[in-house]
Write a structure and sequence with these properties.
Oligomer: single chain
Number of helices: 12
CATH class: Mainly Alpha
């Protein structure tokens, strides 16, 4: 890959996974709001532990595996459809299903400014599938796409935690910095993964996602 191509790939990832990209990710906390409500996440240290567990052993790991599968299947209509169906089926709660599907649909709509997007997907799919396939048809490496996806998740988690009063901006940035090695290592691992590597063990995170559905006062949609 030439320097110019690498720069284009970087610019696209920065655009697509920026907090400013109009997909509405700021409206979701992935269950973090309920975890804060229940006293499971009280400070920056708890936040880092929570985010690390979800990335390493939870729903975000599965997202990374699915992103990698979509990246490989981007030009295989049947393979991509199967990956999209599996990704939707793996959503562990109503809110998580809503989150991943609405973010995926919004991502494809916003990313249609880049014409190659329509060459990969023509229907609404889960968010990691949309990102993986779109990155692939633009010649962006799987590891780089996963790393950017994970960084966006961590950044959004920190932003949500700040709004929930868990920590301030300084401590939030420190969490992002502390998780850099985990994000890089997970991206490297996910780039070599297959669907056989799907699986999660963050039961508490799954429970709070379900409990959030009945939370009467909330800032976030998940």
């Amino acid at each position: 890959m030439s320097d110019a191509t690498e720069l284009s790939a970087l610019l696209r990832l920065m655009a697509w996974l920026s907090p400013a990209f109009p997909i509405g990710s700021f409206a979701y906390s992935g269950g973090l709001e309920r975890a804060v409500h229940d006293g499971l996440v009280r400070d920056a240290s708890d936040l880092q532990a929570w985010l690390s567990a979800v990335v390493d052993h939870g729903a975000l790991w599965n997202d990374c595996v699915l992103l990698g599968e979509a990246h490989r299947a981007a030009r295989d209509a049947l393979g991509l459809a199967a990956c999209a169906e599996l990704a939707e089926a793996l959503a562990g709660s109503r809110e998580r299903h809503q989150e991943t599907m609405l973010l995926g649909e919004a991502f494809l709509t916003a990313a249609s400014a880049w014409p190659k997007v329509t060459a990969a997907i023509s229907t609404a799919v889960a968010y990691p599938v949309a990102v993986g396939a779109t990155a692939s048809v633009h010649g962006i490496g799987c590891e780089q796409a996963v790393a950017a996806y994970l960084h966006a998740f961590v950044s959004q988690g920190v932003s949500a935690a700040i709004r929930l009063g868990v920590c301030g901006q300084k401590d939030g940035v420190a969490v992002i910095a502390a998780m850099e090695r985990l994000v890089a290592g997970t991206a490297e691992r996910a780039a070599c993964s297959t669907l056989d590597d799907l699986g999660s063990a963050t039961i508490q995170a799954d429970i709070v996602s379900l409990r959030h559905e009945t939370q009467r006062v909330r800032l976030f949609r998940s």
